[in-house]
């Protein structure tokens, strides 16, 4: 009919609909209107992380290398691994936004020629951002590049950040760079 149906009364503390494992169906065209406090709905703040590189990571010239973001600024849901694999594993399906910044540096004597940041999904590269500076020797020795993308993700998909740093000299040290400004990071969160 067109009247309002009320479930429960003013002296009821908790009202349960269904049991564990049941599906509560809300058909197309129906509206959920909330005038109280909603908990457990949606995804805002339920699945998110930010990991940073705590100290410089030495890498080989022009070699794609896993970025070892080892310090968690936060990890809601505990789905980021900050040792060994340095990966985020999605606990549920949905749309996720991932973002990362890589700072590549030499020992200060030679310039950065280019820096790449790569987002890997389940062990394979799916997106890449590239910074090509073509500097000469003794020019700026730090180059940065960022990636930011929203993806459809399945439960248990895992994501990692790889980097490649190329200098115009073969005899100098390369680093994925980190300092108090946290120049290298990897983060993400569930959007929907």
Please give the radius of gyration in angstroms: 23 Å
Main beta-sheet annotation: 7 strands, antiparallel
By DSSP (H or I, 4+ residues per run), the number of helices equals: 0
Gross morphology: elongated
Strand content: 35-45%
State the helical fraction.
under 10%
Q: First CA to last CA: what distance? A: 34 Å
Give the total of beta strands: 12
Q: What are the secondary-structure elements, in order, as H or E?
A: EEEEEEEEEEEE
Main structural class: mainly beta
Which regions have little confidence, pLDDT < 50, spanning 5+ residues? none
| Multimeric state | single chain
Mean pLDDT: 84
Describe this protein with a few key phrases.
192 residues; 12 strands; mainly beta; seven-stranded antiparallel β-sheet
Descriptive account of the structure:
The radius of gyration is 23 Å and the shape is elongated. Strand 7 and strand 8 form a beta hairpin. The protein starts with 47 loop residues before the first strand and ends with a strand. It has no helices and twelve strands. With 192 residues, the protein is mainly β. The mean pLDDT is 84. The strands form two sheets. Strands 1, 2, 4, 6, 9, 11 and 12 form a seven-stranded antiparallel β-sheet that branches. Strands 3, 5, 7, 8 and 10 form a five-stranded antiparallel β-sheet that branches.
């Amino acid at each position: 009919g067109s009247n309002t149906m009320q479930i429960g009364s003013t002296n009821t503390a908790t009202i349960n609909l269904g049991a564990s494992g049941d599906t509560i169906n809300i058909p197309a065209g129906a509206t959920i209107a909330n005038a109280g406090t909603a908990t457990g709905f949606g995804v805002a703040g339920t699945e998110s992380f930010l990991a940073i590189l705590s100290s410089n990571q030495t890498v080989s010239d022009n070699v794609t290398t896993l970025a070892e973001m080892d310090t968690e600024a936060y990890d809601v849901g505990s789905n980021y691994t900050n040792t060994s694999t340095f990966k985020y594993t999605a606990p549920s399906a949905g749309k996720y936004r991932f973002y990362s910044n890589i700072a590549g540096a030499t020992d200060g004597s030679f310039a950065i020629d280019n820096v790449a940041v790569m987002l890997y999904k389940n062990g394979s590269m799916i997106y890449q951002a590239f910074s090509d500076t073509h500097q000469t020797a003794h020019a700026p020795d730090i180059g940065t590049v960022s990636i930011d993308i929203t993806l459809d993700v399945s439960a248990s998909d895992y994501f990692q950040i790889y980097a490649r740093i190329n200098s115009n000299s073969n005899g100098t040290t390369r680093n994925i760079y980190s300092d108090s400004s946290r120049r290298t990071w990897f983060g993400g969160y569930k959007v929907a």
